[in-house]
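Bug report

Summary: structure tokens for Aminodeoxychorismate lyase differ between web form and batch submission.
Environment: batch mode, default settings.
Steps: 1) Submit the sequence below via batch. 2) Compare with the web form result.

Sequence submitted:
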Amino acid sequence: MLIDGLPADRIPITDRGLQYGDGLFESIAVKDGLPCLWQRHMARLETGEQALGFTPTDKQQLWQEALQVAAGQASAVLKIVVTRGSGGRGYRPPSPSHPRRILSIHPWPDYPPEWYEKGIEIRICETRLSNQSKLAGIKHLNRLEQVLARAEWDKSEIAEGLMLDQQDRVICGTQSNLFLLKGDQLLTPNLATAGVAGVVRELVLESAQQFSLKPSLTELSIDDLKQGDALFMTNAIMGLCPVVRFEQTVYELKKIPTELMRFIERGSLAAG
């Protein structure tokens, strides 16, 4: 673990990330010692820094620190946390801020192969997402809604939970983005007021037309999901994972273009 570029495993209790969740994070796949989709992760981090009014971190410095932490790792997860640092009075942030960088490495999750071969089962969460356009899309440290949602089930056969916003719109999974296929339409929720704009979500949207799909950001309801041809979830670690069952609705995995799945599998693990 590195904290501000130095080996350490402690931060001051005055850190605003600890005190108020005043910070951002990125979970990045590592393959053969190299962080994957780095530029996309850094673009989202920079968007978050701008939204929160942080002094921008030096991305080249972060890259060098990431390489140091990831060295020798065949498959792992690199977590980067950037907080506003310490200072300020109460909620009032310090100006200028002095962001704190925390980089740590974690084991690669052992996802069951059948998730990708046969699909996963998902459920609806009772916990709703707040609507806040100033925070929508960025990956900030305030994740209590996701924590509460994930605590709603412990059945191993349920791999993910869908989260709605205050207007009953489907937004995302507890740790993933969602895509719905209807014919050649590839639909994903508009994240203007809630949710995290995932880097693999971005990759899917950019590449969809290569596979004769028409991508669209839209509002989706539970009924929309039940009327779709196929459903899949994405994030930077699991890549693209097809859904086989949502409540009483069963989806055909063959509706998801095999070429798209292979493209995302390769693309989500691309270095740099």
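Above is the batch result. After comparison, the two runs are identical; trailing whitespace caused the diff. The helical segments are 16-20, 38-52, 59-70, 113-118, 144-150, 199-207, 222-226, 258-268. DSSP finds eight helices and 15 strands in the chain.
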